Amino acid sequence: MNKTIETILDHRSIRSFQDKPLTREQIETIITTAQAASTSSFIQAYSIIGVSDQNKKDQLAEVVGNQPYVAKNGHFLVFCADLNRHAQIAEMENIDVIPSIESTEKFMVSVIDAALAAQNAAIAAESMGLGICYIGGIRNNLEAVQSLLKTPDYVVPLFGMAIGYPAKVNDKKPRLPLEHVYMENEYQQDTATFIKQLEDYNQVISAYYRERTDGKREDTWTEQIGQMLEKKSRMYMKDFVQNRKMDLR
Amino acid sequence: MNKTIETILDHRSIRSFQDKPLTREQIETIITTAQAASTSSFIQAYSIIGVSDQNKKDQLAEVVGNQPYVAKNGHFLVFCADLNRHAQIAEMENIDVIPSIESTEKFMVSVIDAALAAQNAAIAAESMGLGICYIGGIRNNLEAVQSLLKTPDYVVPLFGMAIGYPAKVNDKKPRLPLEHVYMENEYQQDTATFIKQLEDYNQVISAYYRERTDGKREDTWTEQIGQMLEKKSRMYMKDFVQNRKMDLR
């Protein structure tokens, strides 16, 4: 196993950082690696907003709820799906790109582009001895995030990333069995096998929590995820995205 | 610069592979690294379908158009946004998850989850001396891909990834200037600066093509992307995704 694979497999979300800001050089290295990711047909449909202003970080921490590491970290990035520069292209080249950039296809392209870039940034940061945590919580209130970061139409902030020197390192949570996530030549057609895999995995997750909480917690994966999904979070998202003129047609 | 960052920065898409299949061990390493990526609230909302059946690979190559490396490579993966296992959870836990998994929010979560996993796979493969190429072209005809891979409702194949031993290595294309993609504390508010950055970048890209084609090609980035966007590709995507019961509300 090489060093890069070791770094990737050693990933865990870091939720407590030392009080030590990243240098400009570290930030530029991380952004440059993000930009090196593949991008659909060279479209480069994302932007990254670095938040260094402590007041803004505090406000973001409020938006996401109880996550102090959004305010306290070495640096904070917000990854955005971004077709705004492509809207500008229309004026520069005097052509109509609106049906295209308002399409579901291009929304997906911009979300995928942003995520590929982000994961490069995550791996690069971790390879430098830093820790990271993705912050989906910024989607709790994208109106607030948008007004804080002044993002225009054709831009949707997708998630944050807190980066910094780890103060506390958590355990890795076991993932779904490989044979459940990875299928050969066609999707798993046998529902009984599919459910059996989830049940076996439930035992693994239950044991994981039991061990780490002296038996206080022993919920299974399907219980945990089921409860989360039953709650219906962020149901305003369709309106928000479409008000930003994305995923419209 | 460490080895991992070198690997990330050295990325280029490989479109010609040696006739040498990946071993099962290599494939499992790649999938395991994919699974190590962050996943929103532990939801693990993606699946990966490995296509080894040469007949299916040939058919996929036909779907995407003129891309022979979809049929000829060391292995081919299809990354899918997948909330099907979460639909199963509803039955296992006897709860209602439908409004949640049919939401735009959860569609975004599943697309982001799949992309983060894919980029881990890409970096891992490259660190092993393999090359990769993302294949967005599978979205040219997702009905065909779906019937080939037998994916159920709540699953949307997003992109393929051809992996293998490189037969031919291309140059890296220069990315947008860092200061255009990376902004501090708020989105770039000055349109003139924004457009000036694109114009400067146009010079870089034009020179890049000129050098590599003996002056035969010298299109700018905004020309190239503008022409692509003017064409309106894959406008069926919204219907396809919603027919799969995702991004509905």
TrEMBL record, chains A, B:
Residues 9-165 form the Nitroreductase domain. InterPro entries: Flavin_OxRdtase_Frp, Nitroreductase, Nitroreductase-like. One of its GO terms (molecular function) is oxidoreductase activity. Keywords: Flavoprotein, FMN, NADP, Oxidoreductase. The keyword Chaperone does not apply. Belongs to the flavin oxidoreductase frp family. This is FMN reductase (NADPH).
